[in-house]
Amino acid sequence: MAGLPRVVDLLAARAEEHDRDATFPYQGIEAVHEAGLLTLTVSRKYGGPGGTLADTVRVLSQLGRGDASVAVVTAFTLLRHAEQARRADWPAAGYRRLLTESRRGPALVNTLRAEPGGQPGGLPETVARRDGDGWLLTGRKTYCTGAEALAWMAVTARTDEEAPRIGTFLVRGESEGLEIDPTWDQLGLRASASHDVVLDRVRVPADLALGLGTHEPASDGTEAGLARAWHDLALSAVAIGVARAAEAWLVRFLNQRTPANLTEPLGTLPRYRCALGEIEAQLIGAEELVQGLAPRVDRGEPDAVARTGPAHLLATRAATAAVQQAVALTGNPGLSRRHPLERYLRDVLSSRVHLASDETVLEAAGRAALERGARP
C-alpha cells in the first residue's frame, strides 16, 4: 500500500499515450507488480499477503484514478487469485507455476467466458476434444481483458461427448494454436487489450481441465455468490476511481479558470460550487456503498453478498453521472483531447462492458423483493 501513490502517478503520466495509440500499458502493469499489488489477493497459505475484498476495493479505486485500463487488467488477476484462495480449484503444481512466474515479473491471468453471440446459460461454443491423455480446444472468446499479455487463460469450454460436459481449461498464453485477434477498438478502456482469443486445437493436459460436469463450475451456491460479489465491487471501485480523477481535474479547472467577464475563478460562484457539491455527494454515496459492503462480504454475510449486483449498478451510474456533469460544467475544454476529462468520460462509459444489463440486475432485485414480501 505504501507504494500506491507513486504507482498512480506513474499510470496517470502514461495513460493518455496508451489511450491515444490503444497500446497495452506494459510499464504500468510492471509498476503495479513491483509494488506487490498484482498478487495482493494471493492467500497466506500460498505465501501471499492474503488481501481481502476491502483491500482490493481500496487499491483498485486508486489505480482507477491513474489509468482505468491498468486497473481493470489488474482487477481480473486479483479476482483469480482470490478465487483460488477460496476454492483451491487449480491443481497445486499449476498454481505453484503461476506463483513462481509472479515472483519473476507480472503474471496476468483471466477467465475467458464470453463468446460472440453467446447466450447466458447456454452451452459454450468453444469445444474440447479428447486427444490421448489431454484435450484439444477450438473456439473463440471475446472481450478478453489483457488478452495480449496474459500468462494464463482459464477458458470455459464444453466437451464434444454425446452428453457434453462443461469445464475450465487452463491455457498458457504462449500456447501453440492460440492467436490474439485485435478486435478491441472501443470508445474507452482502449489500452486494456480486451481482444478476441482464437483457439485452434490448443492442447491442454488432462490435469489442467477443471470441474468437468454437466454445469459450469461454480454455477450456483455460496462460491458463485462470492465470485460475483468480488467482481461487482472490484469493478465498481475502478469506475469510482475514474470519477474521482475527473472530479480532481474539475476542481483544478474551477480554481484556475477566470472567464473574461469575471474577476474571480469559476470556483467562487455558488452555481459551480453547488454543482461540484452534487458530484461530491454522488461519489461519497458510491464509495460508502462499495466500501461498506466489501468488509461485510469478507465476513461472509449473505445479505451483503446478495446486494453487490445492485451496488455495482448504482456505483457505476453515480460515477458516470459525476463525470458527465463535470464535462457539462467545463464546456469545450472538457471535451478537448488536450485534457484528460474526455478520456475519463469514455473510460467510465465503457466500464459498462463489465456490468450485467440494467434489466437483468433490476429484475433479480425485484424478484428478491417479491420473495421477501411473500414470506409469512
CA-based shape: globular
Total strands: 8
Give average pLDDT, whole number. 93
**SSE-based structural type:** alpha+beta
* Helix/strand order, N-terminal first: HHHHHEEEEEEEEHHHHHH
Strand proportion: 15-25%
- Please report the number of helical segments: 11
Please give the alpha-carbon distance between the first and last residues.
48 Å
The value of Rg in angstroms is: 22 Å
Task: Characterise the protein shown here.
The structure is a single chain. The protein has 376 residues and is α+β, with helices and mostly antiparallel strands. Strands 1, 2, 3, 4, 5, 6, 7 and 8 form an eight-stranded mixed β-sheet that branches. Helix 1 packs across helix 3 (53-66), helix 4 (68-87) packs antiparallel against helix 6 and helix 6 (221-256) runs antiparallel to helix 7 (270-298). The chain is globular, with a radius of gyration of 22 Å. The protein has eleven helices and eight strands. The longest helix has 36 residues, at 221-256.
